[in-house]
Amino acid sequence: MSSAAKTAQKGPIISIMVALNCEAKPWVDLYKLKKVANTPFELYAREGVDIEIVVTGIGALAMSTAVGWLAGVSRHVRRVWLNLGIAGHAERALGELVRVHAFIDANDLKHYYPPLTAACKNQSEALLSVNAPTSTYPEGAMVDMEGLAFYRSACMFSDSELVASLKVVSDNQENSVEGLNAAKITALMQPHTDPVDKLINSLITLAQKPQLDDIRLELAHLRRSHSQQQQLNRLLARAAVLELHADISEGQFSDYKTIRDVLAQLDLQINQTAPVLAEYGGAKNG
Length: 286
Prior knowledge:
Blueprint: H1 3-8, E1 13-18, H2 21-30, E2 34-37, E3 42-46, E4 49-55, H3 60-73, E5 79-88, E6 97-105, E7 111-112, E8 124-129, E9 141-144, H4 147-154, E10 163-171, H5 182-189, H6 193-207, H7 213-218, H8 226-241, H9 259-273, E11 284-285
Helix pairs in contact: 2-5, 3-4, 8-9
């Protein structure tokens, strides 16, 4: 059993989202998972191992729907989200594993920058998500169909620090996407079980950071709506991931009269502390 599987047994659920069965196979085999659901999406899991794999199908709509479905199945579970799949790139070698450091929407060219808090030794690249398969490669970026939909959807249910995407280069200017088949895709993905396992462990470590329960108790007297409570939970969880225990100190909010002011201050402190990436062209969004 892999180190990630051992670590995950008492931690959060690791939800791996892939578009195709052939992309999932190396990790289904690695974690010895079994198919436990076939509709509306194929779900692989195993008792005693908090790792699950969902085969979403191709395209942004399928990916975003699958993320929402999985989050809805067990709404109170803390999750680490990981998207694995293939992507094209003009110049990178076939089979290279690349981390995504920026997601680009092909429709309006907006950029979304995930905080790369979890350790990963692989090189990173921006990812342009398009609506249909293409052999046209953007300059200095990978291209796929599901990456942006995954990131935006997963961030609705988890802290952005716990959402990551890794892509394996499947086609380039010398090797057309038309030449791909299931066996070739699995062969390209297979060599990367170890670095993916290491990233999963790094994400798990972030998810298991001690929570800021003292701050939660300090704010118990302030009235809040259900949505404000959810926002507070998300902000405190993210602050814990970023290890802001010293920055957000007990008694800091003793003079605050409304939960709205607390939320605004927490959001400000977190955004000032969160890792900032150099922009990859265009304006920063998301």
